[in-house]
Amino acid sequence: MSRPLALFAIGLVFGGGIGFVTAAGNGVTFTGHDHSDPAQHGTSAEQHAAMGHAEQHGAAGQKAELAAHNHTKAINFPAGPDAPGLEVAVIKDRMAGWNLQVVPHNFRFAPENASSLDNPGEGHAHVYVNGSKLARLYGTWMHLSELPKGKVEVKVSLNTNSHSTLTVDGKAVDASVTVDNP
């Protein structure tokens, strides 16, 4: 093989690898479309929200464990001693930032089942700061490195594996606390 051709081949391999790592690090998927843009699916925003991924993107050949990714749907439980519940606390970290403690009741964090079919009483949490979603949470503790200055509301909601809102008697299972960040 000639030297220029060999250098070209090496450049392709390394360039492709760097591109792959950069794309993966920025959340780019290989599905060929943006989930936030219903126009790419030929559906309205309402249809996009109402349909699961398998319906939108062709379920042929995909395993049944794929679930609908629907933040507008709610999974409701009746009130009672077995209903899911939630307590939260935000504690100033001695070194820097804040520590969020989440104490779920009748609910199990199941990161291994994220984005799959719902199982009653398991899923993950969504963390919000002043109404803006900060992250998903798959356990009982989270470090918040920075919070805005002043009065800050930290809210946590429980969600099912498929990202649906968890409700009890039609009310979202969430809890919030307000901290004063000088």
Mean pLDDT: 77
Computed CA radius of gyration, to the nearest angstrom: 21 Å
Weakly predicted, low-confidence segments: 26-68
Structural class comes to: alpha+beta
Major sheet size, sense and barrel closure: 5 strands, mixed
H/E order of the elements? Answer: HHHEEEEEEEEEEE
Which percent range fits the helix content? 10-25%
Query: How many H/I helical runs?
Result: 3
CATH evolutionary superfamily of the largest domain: Immunoglobulins
Structure description:
19% of the residues lie in helices and 36% in strands. The chain is an alpha+beta fold and 182 residues long. The protein folds into 2 domains: 55 residues, no CATH class; 108 residues, Immunoglobulin-like, CATH 2.60.40.10. Strands 4, 5, 6, 8 and 11 form a 5-stranded mixed beta sheet that branches. A 3-stranded mixed beta sheet has the order 1-9-10, with no helix packed on it. It has a 3-stranded antiparallel beta sheet with strand order 2-3-7, with no helix packed on it. The protein is flat. The termini are far apart.
